[in-house]
Amino acid sequence: MQWRDNGLGFSPVTIVLHWMVAALLVAILGLEIAMAAGPDRAADTGLAEVQNLLGLVLFLVSIYRFYARITSFHPLPVGTPNPVEVIIGRSVAAALALAMVLLPAAVWLSRAAGGAAVVLPGGHALPRLIDPAPGLKALVDTLFAIGGTAFLAGLALHLFGAWKNHVVLKTPAVQRMLGKHVEL
Predict the structure, then answer these.
(1) Integer Cα distance of 100 and 37 in angstroms
(2) CB distance 184 to 78 below 8 Å
(3) Is the separation of the CB atoms in 5 and 72 below 8 Å?
(4) Beta bridge partners of 118
(5) What are the pLDDT digits (tens) for 106-121?
(6) pTM of the predicted protein model
(7) Cα–Cα–Cα angle for 115, 117, 122, rounded to 5 degrees
(8) Contact partners, residue 125, CB within 8 Å, separation at least 6
(9) Helices 41-71 + 83-113 axis angle, to 10
(10) What are phi and psi for residue 181, nearest 5 degrees?
């Protein structure tokens, strides 16, 4: 069994973690929308704890994904790719992997700087990274907003690239990320 990516394809580990990160992101954003739309603050506490747990899992998985991304060969592109698009696609993928490490860490740091704990289901809390510091919280929140915006732009580029490869160019790039063997 192939445990690491190589020039011919993604490993099953990479494929599973890719879709796990996608599902975690959708769940975290869905919980954020549910908490913003719901009038009940007591229910929001339980949702926030689940969201914190999902964020922790995302952070831990993303540390490995980023490490694997920078230490493994990336599969060759399928079809007849434009070299500029290959550079952009790989840069965006690496930036997204890094953002999935930095953004959850920024939330953890922001909460600690604001004097709040990151509480998980069952009443467990992550340790505070620093003592409360309102000035640092404002700085981290600003950096998070900038990073979050850049992340969403990168995610839009990633989704556009997948759509273009699948629908317009009709390459098997999406099938490869679904675990199917494709010919280069």
Answers:
(1) 25
(2) yes
(3) yes
(4) 126
(5) 999 999 999 999 999 9
(6) 0.89
(7) 160
(8) 117, 118, 119
(9) 140
(10) -75, 130
